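INTERNAL AUDIT FORM
Audit reference: QA-55
Scope: verify that the stored structure record matches its stored sequence.
Auditor: D.O.
Record contents follow.
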Amino acid sequence: MAKGKERQWLRHQAVGELDDTKIIDSLTGEKAIYKRRGELDPQLGSPLQKPKRLRLAVDVSGSMYRFNGVDGRLERSMEAACMVMEAFDNYEHKFKYDIIGHSGDGFNIALVNSDKVPKNNKERLEVLKIMHAHAQFCMSGDHTLEGTEHAIREIAKEEADEYFVIVLSDANLERYGIPPARFAEALTINPQVNAFTIFIGSLGDQAGRLQRTLPAGRAFIAMDTKEIPQILQQIFTSTMLSST
């Protein structure tokens, strides 16, 4: 469903340019006989004029590889990426997506370009192999904040019906001295972009504590791959039902 507003003639206005179709009405004393250019909300169910835009920022840090044996976090990150690649296959006209990685090596590691998305299982597997190898050999460190902010800023530069940024993280921010309030700030730097995080790994109650301190509805926890499709559906549904 389209969310983007389209510029068109707004009729029945009290000020503006005289509407030729309202000339007769002016003789009867009608005041709303003008038209002007403006933005109009699309009608319910109207087709998309521009595709929706999604950027998936996946955690491929060293801790993802190191603690994969504990809770399967790297496998879950790879499976989430695979789900997105499969779900939007052949829907490029409606949903344009790309996938970037964040780790100790950087905050904008190109994995899937929106102009060249994987078209088959072999190409999707290559992306997953890159994610696995990167997590295994990257330097220690964390660029979750930089990756989140960069993804939000960059995606908003493109024309789209609606913007989504989903950040996958193992909730290991405490180790690098990143306060939850700073992450909350990163997720909300642009109100035009619907930004969310899914915690797919946690040592102890790390993810739960982080979720409770982030803005309501912005953070999810998925310790089982089966939960990820429902979370993605919830994210997209929540924005469609919102009035903003």
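Auditor finding: record pair retrieved intact. The chain has two domains: 6-40, 52-241.
Action required: none
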